[in-house]
Amino acid sequence: MHQSLRLSDAARSKIPLQSRRSAIAAANPSACLEERAIFMQNITRIPWTIDILVPFLPVLYAILDPIRIPSISNALEGPGDAVQDSHVGLEIFCVSNSLRGILTLVRAKRVPFGASSDIWKNVWPWLQFTEMYHEHLTADLIADRYVQQVLFIATLGTNPEAERTMAKDIVDICIFLGRAWAQLLQADDRDNKAAHTALISLPGCVQSWTEHPDWTRSAADGLIVGAGGSAANLASLALLHLNRFLPNKYSPLDQEHVSLALGGLVSFIQSTNHEARAPFGLGFADVLLEMGLVTSLTNLSRAVFDGSLPADVSILTYYEYLLAFLRPCPRHQRVVEALRAGFLPTVLQAGIALPGCRALLFDNLSSVTTLHSSLSQIRVSLSQIKDINKKARLIKKSSPPFYKSWQGFMAVLEDRFQVLDAYNAERLTVPICCHNHECGGTFHKQDIKVCSGCTIAYYCSKACQQTDWLAGHRQFCTHLSWRSRVDCHPEHSPMTARDNSFLHTLLYWEFRSRQKEIALGYLRFMQNQPDKTPYMLFDFRHGACQIQIDDIEELDSALTPVAVEAVVERGDRILFNVTRGSEYHDIIPRFFPPFVAGREFLAGLRTIAAGMPSGAGEEQLEQYCPAVLMLMEGALQSDFRDDMEQRRLVR
């Protein structure tokens, strides 16, 4: 036992004279219940302040000897109302007030250095006792028992000496903290400053234990049990906490304390998503996302930039954390969710405040403009930004590099909106090729269906699908299947039929409007690598579509050898088109005309290349473009070609 917890002669002399005799009697290990009760009645008659309580620390510590817990528990679990018994009632009275006094001293950090470990050994069993028999405690302790006990655990946890002792009870501590978190949030006591302080400190306290060397899966399960029994219960507590303290006119806290309340919570959420040491398993972050984490973080970011929170560096990192969740495409649903919560207006502010985020901002947004759902939401979000042109002019003055990026993004949107309008109005008729290479027919989209596994291949009939499946699509489909990809989280569904159809239309439009550029790309490729097989890459990662012609053998590792073999060797057709962008890093094959062409197409390219003079420059290559364009045009059926020419957009 630490010296400060012993009732030495020096300690006795500090106790007020009127209470000294009863205090000495109560602290005696052989003291009877009546002596403890007399002391407690005397001390409760005077107003409690920190200075008054400090001299009584050894007495309060002695009264809280855990040796008496079994006898009190047995009495409470016996027949009848044990509290009405004078003996049990006095015990509860002494324990309740001793706990209240010693918790107050610990919270005020008036416990001598080195005594914290001993205090924990005596107090923690009683905290567990009060949790089990709280209905028998005094009204004062019932009212704020979680508040005092959370602050007691949080305060002692910052003491390295006490923390080592507390670690032995880490599972029980986590169960208690989870239960306390749920109760404090449900209480919604907006006028209780102590309750706010406990809630502010609780997530940081939980996070500190998740990073402790003694943290185990049992401790994680304990926190989940305390929160309600499931990971969803714990996730809902975290999000309820975040939404409770988001700045608004009804917020019970000032800016400084809101920052503290949210900072600890966001740090806790970050720790749960750290793959190297995920304290609740990797799936817990998915539960948080499914329950609306992106929306909550977007609202937090809006509060930062609206001036509701102090715009210091630590707060601005919340925005970078939000971007980290939006970054792993193909989770475009996250971007759509953020846009609905008001993400786009923050881009104008974040681009100035966070220069390091600029590229990431536009990469996130540009990569999802290939999808109908996200592009439509971007249009809605743009219409909700007040004085957007005025804000753009202010950006031009304050940050020309960011203004240039914004203008480039707006130019991309202008082009995409044209395609979106034409798609919505059904002014574009896009041919779709049956993926069964033995068929190779071209159809309207209403006459052909997409494979539900990969959402890439199209078939005109069940027979064609079965034929192609046996021919090798089963290996190809498994690789491309959204559900089988390791980077796909369960809260995100496969690309919708509308998104897939719109991307199909966008690709076709890019091809039709840039045929000369593509023809020159084919000529350059055949000039340098006449014996190789080219493929066409449509790269949407950085806004405007970049078209690249390269050797099919050099395809990214995202396209497996099985898929490459299926592309090159099956039947008499060759893949000439892949996309990159909406799936972030993956290269995804797309099969529609004229991108899937026969070997005659490749033979024609080689014939044209053979007739070109060695070392031909750009002007000479352009002379051969008409021949390549005619070859490309031959891949389209005449009815689709004529229809497309009549419906082409004016760019």
UniProtKB/TrEMBL annotation:
A GO molecular-function descriptor: zinc ion binding
Keyword match Metal-binding: yes
Domain of life: Eukaryota
Record-annotated MYND-type domain positions: 436-477
Keywords of this entry: Metal-binding, Zinc, Zinc-finger
Keyword flag Metal-binding: yes
UniProt xrefs under InterPro entries: Znf_MYND
Residue intervals passing through the bilayer: none
Pfam families per UniProt: zf-MYND
Name of protein: MYND-type domain-containing protein
